Amino acid sequence: MSGDGGRVTDLAPELTSILRRIGDLPDIEGLSLRLGKPREDQIEREATSPAAGGLIEESILALRSVPVPTVAAIDGHTSGYELALALACDIRLASTRATLDFSSAPGGVAPDLGWTYFLPRIVAPSRALEMLLEERRMSPGEARSEGVIAAVATADSLADLAREHALSLAAGRSREDFAVILMDMRSAASPT
User: Higher pLDDT residue, 121 or 51?
Assistant: First the structure.
């Protein structure tokens, strides 16, 4: 998903399809998603149409249903749909060149995409509100100190760190045991 200039309407259905098949692949122990663009000027801020919104929701629900730990490896400028995917992952890691951009889309329309759901479950609700209202653009250090990401690595070591992190989370547990833990944790973060 990184750096390819793809549009949400192209990426979301393909990602959803892949995520839905992971449950049928018994050898998968963890999943890491590499997210982010190399430079901010490569970001295309598309308005979220109702069709795109539905596709986004489907892919995020599919991601949250994956029965293995999910780790976002944020490498570069991340906003919009990619940021929503990162927030939906169980754990987030970032490279030293990452930026998490909570700013609004053109015209001041906030591209929520699940940000208001996931962010207050990652950091305190009052901090999440402040980040969103201030349209915060966070460096990796700030994101780490706020608790949005778990660790910062160099760009060269980020993929290995994400893979190791996903596997270490599941180590020593059966896939079924881990799926129960994930379901409990993910449902605890859901509104009742």
Answer: 121
